[in-house]
Amino acid sequence: MAEDDLELLITAVVAADDERQARAACDGLLRRVGGRVVRASDCSDEEPGCWSVTISLVSGERVGQNVAGALARAVRTFVRRLGDELPLPRVACEPPTAWTVLDDPDPLDELLPGVERLLVEAWAGGDPQHRGRAEPAPPALPADEPASSTRLLLRVDVATDRSAGAEWQARAVASRVARNGKITRVAPHGHLLSVHVDLGSTENSPDVALRDAVASLGRSGWSAPDWSGPSATSRWSAAPAPPAGITALELTATPASAFVWTVPD
Predict the structure, then answer these.
(1) What's the rounded Cα separation, in Å, for the pair 74 and 58?
(2) Residue 171 is inside which H or E element, if any?
(3) Following CA atoms 165, 66, 10, 48 in sequence, which dihedral angle do they give, to the nearest 10 degrees?
(4) Distance separating alpha carbons of residues 235 and 116, to the nearest angstrom
(5) Which of 24, 89, 154, 244 could, after both became Cys, cross-link 100 (CB 3.0–4.6 A)?
(6) Where is this region: Disordered (predicted)?
(7) Taking a C-beta distance cutoff of 8 angstroms, is the pair 169, 158 a contact?
(8) Across-strand partners of 252?
(9) What is the pLDDT of residues 225-234, one digit of tens each?
(10) Cβ-contact 99, 75 below 8 angstroms
(11) Which residues pair with 41 in a beta bridge?
C-alpha cells in the first residue's frame, strides 16, 4: 500500500458459534467490497455468542492537504457501497483515523447474516500498529507475567448516552496502542461514559511504556507523567470539550509486580 493510500478496517460483530461460522458470515461482504480478513476473535465474554471479524482493504481515497476530509470521505464512501437503504452515518474523526459505527443490523442482515454491528475505520498512512502482521497471543494474566513487565491501562471518557458507541470509540483509540486491548468496564462519569481498557503488558519500564503509548496516540497536549509510587499516569483532554465524542484520555503504566487484577461486576 502506498504511503498516501487510506486503509479501511471493517470490524463486524456477528452471531456465531466458532471462527469458521464467523468468517463464513462475512463472505457476502468480502464479495461486495474485496479485502482480506486480518483477525477473527471470540468476543463472547463481552457479548455471548458473538465473534468479531476484521477486514482490511485499501480505500479509493488518497491523502491530500485535508487529511481529516479524506478520512471522513473514505468512511462515507464505503458505507454507500453497502447499500442505498443505509443512511449516511455521523463520522468521528481524529487524524490519523476516522470511524463510524453501524448498529442497526436490519439493513445489513442480507449482506452480513447475524451481524450485530459494524465498525468502519479509515487510517491515513496505514495502521501505525501494523495490523497486517500475525495476530499476537492475548495478554497473559498478571500472575504469569515477568516481574519486570509493565501493564498499560487506558481510560476513555466519551460524551454519549450509548454504551455501544462509547465502547467502539474507545476500541478505535486503544487499537493505536495495542491490538489486543480488552474493555474491563464502562462506568458513568458525570454526563460522560468512561470506558476502561486493559492494553496488556510490555517489557518496557513504566516511563518508557507510557511515553511510547502517548506517542502512538499521536495527540498533543498530554500532561507530564504523574507518579504514584511505581505507577505513572498521563492525561489528555479536549479543549473545548465537544458536545459528542471523546473528551478525555488517561493512560497509566503500572509494574506487573504492583498490578492488582480486578474482575468487573
Answers:
(1) 10
(2) helix 163-174
(3) -10
(4) 33
(5) 89
(6) 126-147
(7) yes
(8) 153, 233
(9) 999 989 999 9
(10) yes
(11) 52
pLDDT in tens, 86-131: 888 788 887 777 888 888 878 888 899 999 888 888 887 544 333 3
Beta bridge partners of 159: 245
What is the sign, positive or negative, of the torsion defined by CA atoms of 25, 198, 175, 82?
A: positive
Provide the 3-class DSSP secondary structure of residue 121.
strand
CA distance 107 to 137: 35
pLDDT value at position 207? 93
Sequence ranges of the domains in the chain: 5-124, 147-258
Q: The domain 5-124: what is its CATH number?
A: 3.30.1440
| CA 190/CA 53 separation, integer angstroms | 33
Retrieve residue 35's grid coordinates.
479485502
236's CB contacts (< 8 A; 6+ apart) are 217, 219, 221, 222, 223, 248, 249, 250
Report whether 51 contacts 26 (CB < 8 A).
Answer: no
Q: How far from the centroid of its chain's Cα atoms is residue 258's Cα?
A: 27
SS3 110: coil
Contact 209, 150 (CB under 8 A): yes
Beta strand 97-102 with 115-124: parallel, antiparallel or unpaired? antiparallel
CA quadruple 34, 35, 37, 39: dihedral sign: negative
Partner residues linked to 254 by β-bridges:
151
Reference 177, options 142, 158, 204, 140; nearest CA is 204
Kindly report whether the global pTM for this prediction surpasses the value 0.85: no
Choose the CATH number for 147-258 among 3.30.70, 3.30.1440, 1.10.287, 3.30.160: 3.30.1440
Which positions ≥6 away from 50 have C-beta within 8 Å? 13, 14, 15, 16, 43, 44, 116
C-beta of residue 128 within 8 angstroms of C-beta of residue 136: no
